[in-house]
Specification:
Jelly Rolls, rod-shaped, 1 helix, 191 residues, 6-stranded antiparallel beta sheet, mainly beta, 12% helix
Length: 191
Amino acid sequence: MNRIGKLALVAGILAIALAVPMAAANVIFVYQAQVTVKPVTPIVWLYGPDANYVSLSLSNTSPQVKLTIPVTNSSETYVYQALEVKVNAGSPNLYVDSCSYSGPNLLTSVELIVYLTAESPSSPIGTITITPSNTSCAVSGSNSIPLTAGNTYYIDFLVQPSLPIPNSARSGTLTIYFGLTNESAQPVPTP
């Protein structure tokens, strides 16, 4: 074999030797995906049908509710359906984290009565009692009410004043900070 033939043979073998690993190499594809996830707010706080009777103001960014308590000489004032709570996800427990009161010391207690919107307040799923004063705001009662996803609840306020109310009495403002425990992680559906 002449020199050119030998070089051609070596070049051919070299080309085959280089082609085999390249053909056996794994091919990697890179995909880029864009996913839009709609966040789910576990609980939404809404004004109830009778929110105007307690001058209710609320914030969904932090579970804070402010209400101006009507003070009368009646033995109690019951405000129906002042606050509405819609549970979108999870099974959280609702409780009063803290509260504050500004105004005259005219209240014995304010009871929060929680029940399903389809039910009656006479069959509540739980109650929380707040005893407000200018120096403190004590919370008693069950103080942890289980809520279920897909349900909407009303919170009624039962206000019991200290009687008799003086003629110069003015209304007070109760601020309630709600808390949620036992919130479960929610799966995000794929598009």
